[in-house]
């Protein structure tokens, strides 16, 4: 078993205590720290909370903010609900698919981008909106999407990130 | 000696638009000019002016600047705080208001405050400062209740106020509390902050703008029903609201306003925050309780209702954020005062997020019973581009699609219900003549298909079938039989789904067909 992983899980569990009620929050924090929830991670959590691993998987697979597989370096979540849709969301979505060359739920072959949709994130006054990792971008147009993707890519290059 | 305060809107939207850089620019310029000891800079919560964010308000004048870009920050400091004159060209655009609502006098550039109950402090105080909350009557209601009132009197006041739940259903709050009072067991107060209806973000702005009001409302609820523990279930996407709440709870505990032996009265009340992880159905109260216990957020069978068997199978009050934020003002000012606002059947105010084809979008608080026409004209600044109103979608995805004949119906729970529509959770998506109702219904049903928890067949399978039929209609492949089938399935889904999510999933189709049938029929292939 990966030693770093074991330590990370133990650290998160320490914060919450081995408490079944905190399972959703424990998984949420591990997801943020590790990028996604691997089978090994879920097994460690199940063992610590003395729960069947099926129950832990059942909870992990239920919530949209918990990922069961690795994501790209940047995760784009585009809001597809009515307020963003009537504000021109369809064109923006098509531009995103076109620019990245992938469809919903996919990751680019180079592992840089994952494209997901999200339900309303409560920023409807500036719709259409998308999240790039933790940052909200609003008042999107196809043109602005191209600019944002370029900016993020340039920032990565400047920072030497993958 | 502080001679001026500079407040910068620090809500998520302002931050996304560079409020932090604006704040840094202002602080740097103050320090450069040696004004940093006499001018205090802090964040405030939301301002109901999405057209002018990030907003900067300079007190004591109350001058409002917006939208302020980082490069404007130094100029405002030089002009306003150093030379003492208003930076005219950076002033926020003026706002128009209805005659029926009280105006507060303001100086040049100041927006006039609406007559508010829930949002009276939001945007005025620094939400991270308990002192500012206390200076604006904060925790006075709790103090009054603990020292002058019996729990039964607090309950009676809320009952007499006729406050109704602001999450969408409009259930009388006092009645809900009274169900819990006589139950045996450990009682809990749960605040439903899992606001996820598309287009609704009022609760986020209440939590970010005035978190202590919600905490005080929960403590009052706890005192009234005999609960000593409260839980706030905040949706996973609202990271900032969660941080503000946790910070506010710690402040209140440090001041002895929450925790053990509050204000030396012998009443204990502890509040915990629990974050969700992305699931719309958790806004349904029994699904919320499951999630709060660390499980999948699937709804429970009712009865027993949460008031009998809720969190940890104990009697539980589950109230919406806005509902709880009303409570301190009711206890402080009395039930008669509250009933003097709004309508007889639905007193008080309602907070909405107005979106779509109007000139001004954003957060508003209006008296119950105002008409949609007034809201659009007064608060929305009219329809954008002078186009005609076609329909509005109320209360997020589970609200109704309402046509122009509803423009003059008073917006309160009973008047809307009498006309076969729902007031919903507080979103107003206004659509103009160019809107395609079939397309709108498609997007709304797609939302429910994505968010269905999968527990019951009518919702899990029905949403898929409805979406397929709508898709065929949209693409022009549907026959008359498909439309009949769509209506039939929508009827089954509404009648037989296990919880409110499934029941609501059919509403866009059923209300769409009721008011705009010709548009659906026009798409049928003959």
List the helices and strands and how they pair.
The complex is a heterodimer of chains A (162) and B (526).
Chain A: H1 3-16, H2 23-34, H3 39-49, H4 53-60, E1 74-79, H5 82-100, E2 113-118, E3 130-132, E4 135-137, H6 142-159
Parallel strand pairs in A: 1-2
Antiparallel strand pairs in A: 1-3, 3-4
Helix pairs in contact in A: 1-2, 1-3, 2-3, 3-4, 5-6
Chain B: E1 4-9, H1 12-16, H2 19-32, E2 39-44, E3 56-59, E4 63-65, H3 70-82, H4 130-135, H5 140-148, H6 151-161, H7 173-181, E5 188-193, H8 202-209, H9 211-225, E6 229-234, H10 239-254, E7 270-275, H11 285-292, E8 316-320, H12 321-333, H13 335-339, E9 349-356, E10 362-367, H14 372-379, E11 389-394, E12 401-403, H15 413-418, E13 427-432, H16 437-451, H17 457-475, H18 480-496, H19 500-505, H20 507-521
Parallel strand pairs in B: 1-2, 5-6, 5-8, 6-7, 9-13
Antiparallel strand pairs in B: 1-3, 3-4, 9-10, 11-12, 11-13
Helix pairs in contact in B: 2-3, 5-9, 5-12, 6-7, 6-9, 8-9, 8-10, 9-12, 16-17, 16-20, 17-18, 18-20
